[in-house]
Amino acid sequence: MKRSVRFRKMKKVLSAMLLSGLLTFSAASAAELPAQSRENLDCELEDMVGYTGTKVPGLGVIVYKDGEEIYSRFMGRRYIDSENPAKDLPVTRDTRFRVASVSKHFTIFTIMQLVEQGKLDLDADASKYLGFSLRNPNYPDTPITVRMLASHTSSLRDGKVYSLAPELSVKEFFSPTGKNWENGAHFAPKGEDPGEFFCYANLNYGLLGTIIECVTGERFDKYQKNHILKQLDIKADYLPGGLGKKEFSRLGTLYRKGKDGAWNERGPWQASMYDFKGTRPGKDYVFLQNPYEEQGQRAVSLSGYRVGTNATFFSPQGGLCISYDELGHLLEMLMNGGVYRGQRIVRQDLLEEMFRPQWVYDATKNNGNDYGGSLPCYGMGEYVMGGDSTARPCKDLNITLAGHLGEAYGLFSGVLLIPGTKDGFIYMMNGEAVEEDEDARSAGKYSGNYIWEEHVMDAVCRNAFPERAGEPTATK
Predict the structure, then answer these.
(1) Helix axes 203-216, 104-116, angle to 10 degrees
(2) Quick one: average pLDDT of 434-447?
(3) 80 or 468, higher pLDDT
(4) What distances in angstroms separate CA 346 from CA 116, 223, 425, one per listed residue?
(5) Are 333 and 319 spatial neighbours (Cβ–Cβ below 8 Å)?
(6) What secondary structure letter does DSSP report for 450?
(7) Distances (CA, A) of 352 to 60, 148, 205, 381
(8) Which of 165, 187, 286, 447 has its CA 20 to 30 A from that of 301?
(9) Which is nearest to 407 in space by CA: 454, 344, 469, 346?
(10) Quick check: 25 pLDDT over 70?
């Protein structure tokens, strides 16, 4: 199917969701997952765990229907001791991992809370809050707004490094004399207009974290813990050393079969993130995370950090260490229109604005990168996949999902719900034996998603939500 036709169909689906209210949920009685479906899902998930190919070391899934949990499964290992397998630790419900881009939910929740409080304006020039002029030199007269940062339409780019040491300011990215100017790599070229052209860039969320600091006067990680995370009864942290002793003991390691650019899928699992071997780092320890630049990853001290100058090292885009159970709190809030256990967390109209597509891919306009069809549209920290787009989560069922996926350092994660219902699921898996993008086996077989994402989303949708399907999709 031509992408222009696919665009019209996706736009029609999205418009229908907005008219009916994306977060207006139907009431229904809770249902148990049928025994045969449960057995089938168990087998399909268990088959994902292993040692080579597209197998993963550990995996966990929680499924909700009509607002209630109907299924959970946790398998494999969160920690692997290469010298003594007896010291391996299992994946459990309270295992926490660095959840990658699912973290973006929480940054945008805080942005929306500050909007509700009148402290932020989504359409204001971000420069107003950052304290310096933020402009793409190719578009010097176009303000870059908070909304553009949140929707990845800002015309900013990651470059090789998008996380800076605490002693530096984010201004270092944007000035020709800055230490991380990278010859202007953090700006889009002419023809990729701010507010119109979409390009997924984690730097946007590092700036949003910095704006949160500028507006609140509090360090990003501490503000998050004292507000949105506390409100959702989540004990997560952006700094491993900030976790309590019990919570730190549940922190899992991320693995790959590659190290220093060399991959050997039949070799041992190599820790790629947070292999602390049981020793909790100090509270002022932070690990710079720059996946595109190995030299940009190192341990640094927080001492002397000035709030409001640079929150990129907290990784507001992907650095939250959170458990499966706690992700369930997030999904529960989303399924209830911004309310968590009787407490309003995000105003419903602002939550709906998060899900409303701020950008939709249109091949006829060449208005952005849809990443092989895996990102047909984007809201603010949320997006929709499904229908006839190549982002469809299920091979043979036309099921639409909304939420966000995460992928980094070998981890794959997702928090997803079916719009118009109280059905959804979460997952995290903590490793890859073959390199994504570089190994052909990493590519999805029927969508623009990675094969690991396809496996888990297809298995859950087919076994838990077959009745939610629309007209069958055309299998390719």
Answers:
(1) 40
(2) 95
(3) 80
(4) 8, 16, 20
(5) no
(6) B
(7) 28, 17, 20, 11
(8) 187
(9) 454
(10) no
Tokens standing for residue 303: 């001492």
**What is the per-residue pLDDT for 293?**
76
d(Cα 421, Cα 444) in Å, to the nearest integer?
27
Q: Compute the distance between CA of residue 470 and CA of residue 473 in angstroms, rounded to an integer.
A: 8
At residue 298, the pLDDT reads 78
Average confidence score pLDDT of the chain: 91
Residue 464 has pLDDT above 90, yes or no: yes
pLDDT for position 472: 52
- Residue 441 structure tokens: 């086996």
Q: How far is CA 343 from CA 110, 226, 355, 426, in A?
A: 15, 16, 20, 22
Cα angle at 255 between 441 and 40, to 5 degrees? 60
Q: Which residues contact 369 (CB under 8 A, 6 or more apart)?
A: 198, 199, 200, 375
Residue 204 phi, psi dihedral angles, 5° rounding: -55, -45
Q: Please state, in angstroms and as integers, the Cα–Cα distance from residue 327 to each residue in 166, 235, 414, 429, following that order.
A: 28, 11, 9, 14
* Per-residue buried b or exposed e for 434-460, using 16+ beta carbons within 10 Å of the residue's own CB: bbbeebeeeebebbbbbbbbbbbbbbb
Q: What is the CA radius of gyration of the chain?
A: 21
Least confident stretch, 86-100, 106-120, 287-301 = 287-301
pTM of the model: 0.93
Residues in the chain: 476
Q: Write down the domain spans for the chain.
A: 3-99+324-468
> Cα–Cα distance between 73 and 28 in angstroms, integer?
24
Structure tokens belonging to residue 251: 């922190």
8 A C-beta contact, residue 252 and residue 409: no
Q: Is 279 helix (H, G, I), strand (E, B) or coil?
A: coil
Looking at the predicted structure, is the pLDDT value of residue 232 above 80? yes
Residue among 246, 264, 247, 245 at smallest CA distance from 255: 264
DSSP 173-188: GTSTTSTT-GGGTTBP
